[in-house]
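Hypothesis: this fold can be encoded by more than one sequence.
Test: take the structure tokens below, design a sequence, compare later.
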């Protein structure tokens, strides 16, 4: 978020930090609030994966707008299962 040790909240740009966080592929929206004298409240809404896309053996989670959310950490094995089951497995990783 751009936090540095001993940075005063007065000098911290919460709006610029929110924009940087919302630029992350898996974030739908973010709220960042300064709470004086020394705290930040960060609220995130993550995009929901709706499918798995595999290219050359590498699997990615994608959202409803076909944006890549993230690389899946575990190699997926081909199986016959429901979309709901696949999404539950993805969300556990």
């Amino acid at each position: 978020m751009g936090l540095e040790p001993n940075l005063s909240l007065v000098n911290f740009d919460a709006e610029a930090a929110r924009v940087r966080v919302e630029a992350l592929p898996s974030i739908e929206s973010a709220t960042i609030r300064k709470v004086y004298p020394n705290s930040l409240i960060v609220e995130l809404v993550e995009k929901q994966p709706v499918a798995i896309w595999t290219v050359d053996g590498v699997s990615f989670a994608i959202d409803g707008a076909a944006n890549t959310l993230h690389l899946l950490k575990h190699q997926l094995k081909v199986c016959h299962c429901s979309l709901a089951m696949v999404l539950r497995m993805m969300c556990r990783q």
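The mean pLDDT is 77. Residues 24 and 69 are 9 Å apart (CA to CA).
Hypothesis status: open.
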